[in-house]
Amino acid sequence: MKMRLLSGLVAALWAAGVSVGAAAPGEAADSSEQPARKAELFTAERAAEEDLLVVLPRAIEMGMVPIGDERHRRVWVINPSESEDLRIKAVRFDCGCTTAPGFQVMTLEPGEARAVDLEIHAPMEVGTRRDVRVFYVLENGDAVFSTVHLETVDTCSGFSIDPPMPEDDVLALPGEMGLGDLPLGERTEFTAWFVNQSDEPRQIEKLKTSCGCLSAPGFESGVIEPGRAVRVDLVLRPEMDPLDERRVRLVAMDAGGVMAEMSIVYSVGMRPVDDGWETVTEPNGP
């Protein structure tokens, strides 16, 4: 009886097109089937390091925002690939307080940059801290997330001024880059991006820095087409002495003068180094 029921169940599943782990009559079993691929979640930092997607700024610090206020911020997404298109099929959030009302599915060509405008609504509770994640969902289901940080205050607190978004033709992204505390004696390499958000081609003829400690050894003068981004690889020379804080300006210039600029902020050797030894106190004598 049990065998008859089992046979009937298998037949029903087969008719419904459900795999039950056996091959059809006259066919060899297919051992090449792989389990479905699981989508991955990438931080914006990791996605940039792996040349998957560049999101700038990676974190938006809004500080104190009056309760109920509506704020607007712009994020740039860049395809860092030199040969393959990149499709972003959705932008999602882990908080209903943030939306991207104008977003449409976009396909980025290699080196292309697009703006994503975010609309943030501050909660109505004073003292509410929001750490919102913004997810950029790719064609294969993977997602890259950036963050928005804010804290609500009373409407009478005086924090009601919202600075406008930059309107320069060429943007240095991010406008300020914090590298944190760097180790002594080590060369530091990192990347900045320049985006042409105008309707005309723009040419970066040279880069200037406020400190000889920063260089762009591979930079070549070139034209940035509208809606395109150019990557600039930067190098900080090794520092042999501790440094509390340094702020270095990087300026992009054309024939007419300054096109865009950014700041790099860092310290050197200020964080204690863990050498693996434990410091102990000798016990007092009798």
Which descriptors apply to this entry?
Immunoglobulin-like, six-stranded mixed β-sheet, disordered N terminus, four-stranded antiparallel β-sheet, mainly beta, 286 residues, globular
Walk me through the structure.
The protein is mainly β. The protein folds into two domains: 41-153, Sandwich (Immunoglobulin-like); 170-268, Immunoglobulins (Immunoglobulin-like, Sandwich). Helix content is 7%, strand content 45%. It has helices spanning 2-15, 44-49; strands at 41-43, 54-56, 59-66, 70-78, 86-93, 98-99, 106-108, 113-121, 129-138, 143-153, 170-173, 176-182, 188-196, 202-204, 206-209, 214-215, 222-224, 229-236, 243-254, 257-268. Strands 1, 3, 5, 7, 9 and 10 form a six-stranded mixed β-sheet that branches. Strands 2-4-8-6 form a four-stranded antiparallel β-sheet. Strand 9 and strand 10 form a beta hairpin. Mean pLDDT is 81; it is low at 1-29.
CATH fold call of the largest domain: Immunoglobulin-like
Q: Which spans have pLDDT < 50 for at least 5 consecutive residues?
A: 1-29
Under CATH at level 1, the class of the largest domain stands as Mainly Beta
Cα end-to-end separation: 86 Å
Beta percentage is over 45%
The largest pleated sheet is described as: 6 strands, mixed
Please, how many helices?
Answer: 2
Structural class: mainly beta
What is the overall silhouette? globular
> Could you state the order of secondary-structure elements as H and E?
HEHEEEEEEEEEEEEEEEEEEE
Mean pLDDT: 81
CATH A-level architecture of the largest domain: Sandwich
In the residues, how many domains can be counted? Answer: 2
